[in-house]
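Box 3.1 A note on notation
Throughout this textbook, protein chains are presented in two layers. The first layer is the amino acid sequence; the second is a token string describing backbone geometry. Keep the layers aligned when reading.
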Amino acid sequence: MTSPMVLCGLLTGAILLGINGCTSKDSSEPAPPPQAVNGPVTLLTSGNPSGDDDDPAVAVDAQGTVHVVWFSDRDGTKDLYTVHSTAFDLASGTITWSAPVQITHNDPGQFPNPTQGDNFPSLAIDEAGTFHLAWHRVNLINASHILAMRSDGTSEGWASAGVKDVSSGPNYDRFPIS
């Protein structure tokens, strides 16, 4: 399903979503900076002006709902958060968003900023509506892992989803060879 929305950039402490803009005509070219948006921009995150809300991943489900996952250091470490669209006003280009849901809950003592914690989420939604989330985590001893989880996308689903370590080595994101 194609959506008229494209993720177009971010500011310190905020992730932006633009409508009908931000992408280049040639996909080999980088997207223009956020000031090139030719439609309304919606701030998806706020309240973390001195921190990072970064690395957004976007997926659209079969009903046309837009889902965004990103990392934020608003609680003292890098955790993953998600929002989803709840309404579209095509006349004004306005999108209404859910409240943010925290997906991961890292202990700041075990995952201190700026280098430890969860980064680089990737999100996909399959035909059955199952959310597949993968991301990179670095711990206190700088061991680096790729983690994954499945959910139905609800707050309860994310809270009860089990996390699976899909890398095999203690570091460098090694995958098992089968």
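Residues 5-165 form one domain. Confidence is low (pLDDT under 50) at residues 1-14, 18-27, 31-37.
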